[in-house]
Amino acid sequence: MRKFLFISCVIFLTGCSAAPHFQTPAPAANAEQALNYKLFENPAIKASSHVQVHLDEAKDITYVQNFGGGGVAVGVAFGPLGVLANISMIQAETDADVEKLYGKLPLPVGVMFGQAAANQAVSYDETSNVRFHPFVMVVRDEDEMLRMGTALIVEVPQQDGTVWNGRYTHQTSLHLPIDDIADGLSDEEHTQIHEAIEQSFDDIVALYVNDRTGKYTELEHVLIESTFLSPRIVFEINGKVLERSDDRVTLRSGAGLISLPLDDSLELKSATVKKRKKQVKS
Q1: DSSP strands (E only) in the chain
Q2: Cβ proximity of 207 and 200 under 8 Å
Q3: How remote is the C-alpha of 123 from its chain's centroid?
C-alpha cells in the first residue's frame, strides 16, 4: 500500500516536471464500432490505508482525507519518526471520520454506473476484453467539507499484446459539511447526492466514449491546483484543455482525463513552457 501511495504522488508530481507526461488517448474506435465492457476490481482502489478507506461494504465508495498530522514539516524535521507520527495521527483522524460516515451514503454504485453506461450506448458484455472499474470518490477538504465525484479505471488490450491503462475522473459541484452527512441525510440531501452522482457517471462514460472516438482536440496548456485531486498538500498538475464552458473544464493530464467544476476547489492558470537555452559554441 505504501508503494501505491508513493506511485500516486509521483504521478501527480510528474505534472510539475519540465517535460510533463499526459495520458495517451484511448485506443481508437470508429463511430460505428460497438463499445462494450466487463467489470474488474483494481486492487489499488480496493485497498485501504491511513489516507484512503471505504464508506460501504462493497468498497465502491472511496473516502480520501489526509488531515490530522503535522504535515510535511514534521517528516522533514524529525525524519522517519516524524513520518510515522504523521501516519499515526492521520490514521486516527481517518478512523474517526469513517466511524461517522460509514454507511451514510446509500448509493447503489453498480446499478448507477450500469445505467449510465447504457445511456451512452456502452454495453455490458461478460465476454468483452475491455475492463472497467467504476467507483465514487468522496474527498475531505480543509474546511471539513466533502467534495464528491466519480472515477473510472479502464483497461483496453491492443493488437500488439500490450494493455492500455487509463483513468477518467469527474468531480461534481457538490460540497457538503461532513457533519450533515454524519447526522443522516434528509430526503432532499439524498436526492441531491443521488442525482449528482448519476449525472457524474453519465458524464464520465461520455468522457471515455469521446476519448475512444477521437472527439477531443488538445487546446491550451494549463497548470491546475485542485482540492479534489490533492487535498491539503496541493500539487500543481499540468493539463491540456479539451473542453471548457462557463462552469467546467475538461483536461488531459498525467493522472488521466479529468472534468472539474470551475469553483473554489480549483485554481487554473496558463502554463509557461521554458525554452531551452542555446549552447554557445567555443
Answers
A1: 35-39, 52-54, 61-64, 122-124, 131-140, 145-157, 163-177, 221-226, 237-244, 248-253, 256-261, 266-270
A2: no
A3: 23
In one-letter notation, the amino acid at residue 4 is F
φ, ψ of residue 134 to 5 degrees: the values are: -90, 150
C-alpha cell at 276: 531551452
Give yes or no for residue 55 having a pLDDT over 70. yes
- 192 band by pLDDT with thresholds 50, 70 and 90: very high
- DSSP secondary structure code for residue 86 in this structure: H
Q: Return d(Cα 234, Cα 216) in angstroms, integer.
A: 27
CA pseudo-torsion sign 263, 146, 188, 179: negative
Cβ atoms of 241 and 181 within 8 Å: the answer is no
Note the pLDDT of residue 11. Answer: 37
Contact 60, 103 (CB under 8 A): no
CA 125 to the chain's CA centroid = 25
Answer for the pair 135, 150: CB distance below 8 angstroms, yes or no: yes
CA dihedral 232, 252, 49, 164 (to 10 degrees): -170
Question: Measured in Å, how far apart are the chain's first and last C-alpha atoms?
Answer: 52
Q: Provide the residue ranges of all domains of the chain, joining segments of one domain with +.
A: 36-207
Q: Are 22 and 238 in contact (CB under 8 A)?
A: yes
Residue 17, pLDDT score:
42
Which spans in 137-227 are helix H?
A: 178-182, 187-212
What's the CA gap between 132 and 120, in Å, rounded? 15
Helix, strand, or coil (residue 6): helix
